Amino acid sequence: EDVEFADRERLEKLVEKIQVVLKKLIDSFHLGNVIKNGVATVIAGRPNAGKSTLLNALLNEERAIVSDIAGTTRDTIEESLNIDGINFRFVDTAGIRKAQDSIESIGVDKAMSEIQKSTVALHVVDISDTTPEMVWSDIDTFKIIGTRFVIILNKMDLNPYTKPEEYYKEGLISAKNIITTSALNKMNIEALKEHLYHTVIDHPELMDQTIVSNTRHYDALHKSYESLAAVLHGLQSGITGDFVAMDIRQALHFLGEITGEIHTDDLLESIFTRFCIGK
C-alpha cells in the first residue's frame, strides 16, 4: 500500500534526535581505537627537522638513527609510550619533500599514509630555516579531518628569540596547538607529553558515553546515519512517503547488523501508525 506521512515535522525531529545519538557513537570510534591500540601519533615534517631526535627524546632512549643528512629516515619507525595511563603509539616518518630517489619516494608516501590514519599529528618545524608561510603551506597540504595537529617549533637552541606568535594563523595554528622545544637538549619534552595527554583526555563528551571500537559497528553506524540523512532530505523536499520509507528501512537494516534484534516490519508498523496515513 502507498503511504504518506501525516506529520512530517514530528518525524523530522525524531530522526534528528536519533542522528545526534548515532553521531556521538561514530565520534567515539577514535577513542575506542585509543583504548584498543593506543593513540596513533605520527611525527611528520620536512627532512632534517628533528623528527627522529624528538622521538628519541620522548622515549628517553636512542631508538631512531639521527644524522645531519636530510632524508636519513627512509621507513616508518613505531614505538609506544605510556603517558599518565594513556598509551601513545608514535610513528616516526620520512621527511616530506620531493623525493630524491625511488626508495625515499616510498618513505614519503608512507608518511602521508600515516598522517591520514593518525589521531594526533606532531608537525615538527626546524625554526632555523622554515618560515611561517612554509609551515602554513605544509599544514594545508596534508591537514586531515579528524586529526589533531600539534605544531612543534624545534631547534629553539639555535634561535631562542623565536616567538610562537609569528606562526599563528586563524583556524590553523594558535597557542592551543603549538609547542616550542629543543629535542636535542630535551627542552620542553615534559610539557609536550602533558600537552599530548590533554589533547586526548580533554574531551569529556566522549568519556561519558558508550564507546565504539569495532570497525564493522562503526561502518554500520555510518551507513545508518547516511540513510537517516536521506530520510530528512526526503521529508524536507517533499519526496513521496514510499521512498522515505525505503530509507527508513535501510537505516534500520544497518542498525540491525549491530544489534541483531531489530525487527524492521514491527518498527515500520509503529512508525506508520504514529506518523502516516494510507492513501
Topology:
Layout: E1 3-5, H1 8-27, H2 29-37, E2 39-45, H3 51-59, E3 77-83, E4 86-92, H4 102-117, E5 120-126, H5 132-142, E6 148-154, E7 178-180, H6 189-201, H7 204-207, H8 215-237, H9 241-259, H10 264-275, E8 276-278
Parallel strand pairs: 2-4, 2-5, 5-6, 6-7
Antiparallel strand pairs: 1-8, 3-4
What does this structure look like?
The longest helix is centred in the C-terminal third of the chain and has 23 residues. The chain starts with a strand and ends with a strand. Strands 3-4-2-5-6-7 form a six-stranded mixed β-sheet, with helices on both faces. The chain has two domains: about 100 residues, Four Helix Bundle (Hemerythrin (Met), subunit A) (Up-down Bundle), CATH 1.20.120; about 170 residues, P-loop containing nucleotide triphosphate hydrolases (Rossmann fold, 3-Layer(aba) Sandwich). With about 280 residues, it is of the alpha/beta class. About 10% of the residues have low confidence. Strand 5, helix 5 and strand 6 form a beta-alpha-beta unit.
Strand content: 15-25%
CATH architecture designation of the largest domain: 3-Layer(aba) Sandwich
Q: What is the assigned CATH homologous superfamily of the largest domain?
A: P-loop containing nucleotide triphosphate hydrolases
Report the strand count. 8
User: What level of helicity do the residues show?
Assistant: 40-55%
Biggest sheet record: 6 strands, mixed
